[in-house]
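Lab notebook page, bench 4
Experiment: in silico fold of construct C2
Operator: M.H.
Input chain length: 164 residues
Purpose: comparison with the prior construct
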Amino acid sequence: MYEKEIIFNLKYKRKTYIAPIIAEIMYDRLEAAGIEEYPDIIIPVPMYVTKERKRGFNQAALIAKELARLMGIEYRADVVMRCKSTGVMKRLSPEERLNNVRSAFEVYEGMRRKIFGKNIFIVDDIYTTGATVDSIARLLKAAGVSRADVMTFAAGADMVKEAV
């Protein structure tokens, strides 16, 4: 199966048993890339609450939680919230995506102190234009995070990217 098919089956066919397999593949990619310095915390890209309720799960959270377990580091889903619905962005241009996610995320009340000076890994299922993860990374940096890196399962190429 191709990466996009795997993600499609996870998200839309509700095959959540795929998430730990995706996390293992991502972990193997980190090892193959020679990444030795792990972050302090792994967070998923959050979904808007009504969308997550409708789907029944956040695929990025399922992947991130298992990846954190494999790496032996802290997983937190309570660092960043999606405070506005951004709708389906599949057909939006890169510029439209960037405008769409602007001010769509907030750091949860009380988390700034806990994340200050930390290195955070943002995990998502697919990287398209980077608008979502870049928006989150910038928010985290503004909140005092030392470093915010991004890893996704599917993209144009395997990627571990320093967002900011």
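Observations: The chain has one domain: 3-162. The radius of gyration is 15 Å.
Next step: discuss at group meeting.
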